[in-house]
Amino acid sequence: MTANYETREHDVLIIGAGGAGLRAAIEALAQGASVGVVCKSLLGKAHTVMAEGGIAAAMANVDAADSWKTHFRDTMRGGKLLNNWRMAQLHAQESPDRVRELEQWGALFDRTESGDILQRAFGGHTFKRLCHVGDRTGLEMIRTLQDRGVQQGIDVYMECTSTRLLTDNGRVAGAFAYWRENGRFIVFKAKSIVIATGGIGKAWRVTSNSWEYTGDGMALAYEAGAELMDMEFVQFHPTGMVWPPGVQGILVTEAVRGEGGILRNKAGERFMEKYDPKRMELSTRDVVARSIYTEVKKGRGTEHGGAYLDISHKPAEYVKKKLPSMYHQFKELADVDITKGPMEVGPTCHYVMGGIRVDAETAQSTVPGLFAAGEAAAGLHGANRLGGNSLSDLLVFGRRAGLAAAQHAKRSSTPSVDNAQIEQAEKELLAPFSNSGTESPYAVHRDLQEVMQNLVGIFRTDEDLKKALAELAKLKSRAAKLSVEGSRLFNPGWHLSYDLKAMLIVSEAVTHSALARTESRGAHSRIDHPSVDPVWEKKHNVIIRESGGMSRRELPIEPMPEELKQILAAESD
Amino acid sequence: MKQATLRVFRGDSNSGQTVDYRVPVAPGMVVLDALHYIQGHLAPDLAVRWNCKAGKCGSCSAEVNGRPRLTCKTRMDDLPQDQPITVLPMKSFPRIKDLVTDVSWNYRVNRKIPPFQPREGVEWKISQLDVDRVQEFRKCIECFLCQNVCHVLREHDKKEQFAGPRFFVRVAGLEMHPLDGLSRAGLLKDQLGLGYCNITKCCTEVCPEEIHITDNAIIPLKERVVDEFYDPLTKLFRKMRGV
Ligand SMILES: Cc1cc2nc3c(=O)[nH]c(=O)nc-3n(C[C@H](O)[C@H](O)[C@H](O)COP(=O)(O)OP(=O)(O)OC[C@H]3O[C@@H](n4cnc5c(N)ncnc54)[C@H](O)[C@@H]3O)c2cc1C
Ligand code: SF4
Ligand code: SF4
Ligand code: FES
Questions:
Q1: Under 8 Å CB-to-CB from B100, ≥6 apart: which residues?
Q2: For residue B139, which atom of ligand 3 is closest to its CA?
């Protein structure tokens, strides 16, 4: 067979051009590796661009008492001790340097009176810790990284979707991908691959996530033999927009609460007093999301089934300055002036704590040469992520992944790619054009979103989760009969049919893990097992692929060294 | 439910025509929602770009009823619904398919611009006032709507000689960065074609981020070029003050 594809070769291939992928690329390049970056959208449009509230780093610019130890403790406690403690430690220690580095590459953060980087309060953080630029921190971060990367010489393959990893005797050898523009194929040969593809939120109906968040990287890694860990931990952000219908799920940044926003129910009660009187609105996200959900369920919700979030007691000019994009978002999309009245908000699927299991120091997965960082990787956040800890995660572990991937490439010989794997990838991708089936990918996607929304949401039960597994099996067989119209030229229906496959894999992984974990911890709440179970505090759920299909194992958590235990137990430093 | 007609361009780089679609209109719906409805129910291969659906990523640009806009921020109820709503791709860029255009030229222009370079020995202290001034330029979401309307690109297609308003905004962000030590005046004059801009302000009018492209970026940059190349005294003065 003559090749139906073009071929490119890099030492390090990075799949994903968000904060994690770009930071990895910059580091790998600095190590002298040749680096390629592929991404599904145009450069600069990844999810990272939407991040609003800030980057968590214990720089102690505002609260002098802050230190990495407090940040470590907050992260572990927020994650209900399921975090990889070594990752939590590295993250807390290294994020201030990573933020300073951004500044040296041209990022401009808001300032304190004395000219340092300003930091704001956020849920679960003891001190004012989030470095920010109004409410568009992600834009500042991604532009800085993208310009740096491009100037340093990374090759970017934009609007190019990878659908399969190629392996050579169990190690990574490359990736198969197609150009969204014209549907042509491209094969990357690489000694190391970094997965930085972000999350999975598009499997739920109400979500803050874009079309890109279909869990591709986790599915790619899973199919190549890597392990998916802690997948049951899906974060529902407490505050998404609820009205009008078209904007349902769009994020309302936690910075609104960080700047003093107050939550109330229909009766005007500040209901967080009941659920977390100490931290109130700035409790952790799992708690606030459940509180809003409960208020609505008990009939105390707003007209459109949410809670009121009010910042209008602050001066209008201040609100417009600190939360400009929220001001515009509500004004333009919901006809609400947030300087004058409250917003209506409710939980929205936002982030996945679970993902590819990696080594803390190197970000390498269990497949040699395969690395993962950012939202696609698991470990740092445990059972619940604190706001602001994602952007810092991207920088700290993006850099570590890039470094280790480049070093791995230096040590490795060029792997050979297997034509049979390529042919199979081609065949699979083209199948919807020749299928006799009639299933529309959009219809299957809508039904999947209903299943995950209704049965694998904020509150879960044994019965619902079992039902979800049965529904997922039906959806899988429907997905095998997808049929698409039109040509290979920029065809979103066709693109969705591969995305669906990935979403089905991650949805199944989430549901299996959620069913097994018979306790409530962090973002995982079981109505039938409402309290924490000390036995489950000591283990992770791990999903792997076996010949018979998806299988689950339990992995004991490594004991924490004494010094970290002491830091964790202390009340202050 | 109320209905509206969307008249959407369907076609590729060679040919195409508009096609009418009937779409149910829900309260608060935006044009991008309507396009998604068409994809999901009527034309699964309709090509559209989008990501955030909240005016933050600059992916969903198109010409709605003849006006360049973000489709995710264009409310259906702001448009007359007794007649079809036309949705066309940006005109100044080569068409790929339907509403998707080839904007890769912008990324090539960007590569010409030297990045931020801190002055020797700077202390990393910055006042909020200085930050505020520059953040206006850094708000750009790269929707390329300004590039699309600028007549130098739209009517005269001077893509080889002229960088366009988006990149003047970017250069302004670098030049006015309080700690940057580089001058990009020569680049502006010789390679980015700042002189072609005759200050029509069409770019400013369409910017969804409300950046005052002409007044705050282009005009001050033009002054810098004049200072640097035609007025040695001011240049010397500026150097001495370190700005
Ligand atoms: C609205 C919103 C606001 C947020 N605000 C904050 C905040 O204030 N602070 C904070 O810490 N966190 C915040 N988060 C979370 C944080 O933004 C994300 O978790 C983070 O940006 C993820 O970065 P990433 O680099 O892992 O992935 P992304 O930035 O999502 O990038 C993923 C990349 O992978 C590419 N990709 C995916 N699949 C494929 C494939 N198959 N082939 C090729 N490429 C592929 C995509 O195209 C993209 O380039 C927010 C999230 C949202 C949605
Ligand atoms: S002001 Fe200049 S850059 Fe802006 S549209 Fe007019 S000519 Fe183009
Ligand atoms: S300057 Fe404004 S119009 Fe131009 S690309 Fe940026 S955001 Fe869009
Ligand atoms: S989809 Fe992001 S700006 Fe419209």
A1: A181, A490, B47, B48, B49, B89
A2: 7
Same domain, B145 and B217: yes
Within a domain: A547: no
Residue (of B138, B141, B136) closest to B55 by Cα position: B141
Determine which of A41, A45, A182, A327 to mutate to test the interface with B (most B C-beta atoms within 10 Å): A45
Count CB-CB contacts under 10 A for residue A461.
16
Chain A residues lying within 8 Å of B53, measured CB to CB: 210, 247, 250
Kind and range of the H or E run holding B133: helix B128-138
Pocket test for ligand 3, best of B209, B210, B212, B221 (most atoms within 8 A of CB): B209
pLDDT band with cut points at 50, 70 and 90 for residue A237: very high
- Is residue B191 helix, strand or coil? coil
Chain A: give the shortest CA distance to residue B221, in Å: 19
Q: Among B101, B133, B168, which residue terminates a domain?
A: B101
**Cβ separation B28–A111 shorter than 8 A:** no
A355-356 vs A228-229, strand pairing mode: antiparallel
- Is B148 near ligand 2, meaning CB less than 6 Å away? no
Q: Where residue A482 sits, what CATH number does that domain have?
A: 1.20.58.100
Q: Taking CB atoms and an 8 Å cutoff, what residues of chain B touch A247?
A: 28, 30, 53-54
User: Based on the domain organization, do A32 and A155 belong to the same domain?
Assistant: yes
Rounded distance, CA A136 to CA A138, Å? 6
Residue B171 Cβ < 6 Å to ligand 2:
no
B70 lines ligand 4 (CB under 6 A): yes
- Name the residue range of residue B160's domain: 104-241
Domain boundary among B101, B118, B134: B101
Contacts of residue A317, Cβ cutoff 8 Å, sequence gap at least 6: none
Q: Quick one: A333 and A400 in the same domain?
A: no
The letter for the amino acid at A90 is: L
- Full domain range(s) for residue A205: 7-233+353-411
pTM of the prediction? 0.96
pLDDT tens, residue by residue, A133-164: 998 999 999 999 999 999 999 999 999 999 99
Kindly state the DSSP code that residue B217 receives in the 8-state scheme.
I
Average per-residue pLDDT in chain A?
Answer: 96
Residues B112 and B97 placed together within one structural domain of the fold: no
How far is residue A99's CA from residue A25's CA, in Å, rounded to a whole number? 17
CB proximity under 8 Å: A 35-64 to B: 41-47, 49-50
What ipTM does this complex have? 0.94
Contact between chains at A442 and B110 (C-beta distance less than 8 A): no
> For chain B, what is the radius of gyration of the CA atoms?
21
**B126: closest CA of chain A, how far (Å):** 5
Give the span between the Cα atoms of A3 and A511, in whole angstroms.
40
Give me the total of CB pairs closer than 8 Å, taking one residue from chain A and one from chain B. Answer: 164
Domain of residue B55, CATH code: 3.10.20.30
Contact A110 B44 (CB under 8 A): no
**Which one, of A213, A180, A179, lies nearest residue A48 by Cα?**
A213
Number of domains observed in the structure of chain A: 3
Distance CA B200, CA A527 (A): 63
Angstrom CA distances, A184 to A35, A193, A429, A497, stand at 22, 21, 11, 16
**Section A267-294 average pLDDT:** 95
Dist. CA A250–CA A48, nearest whole Å: 15
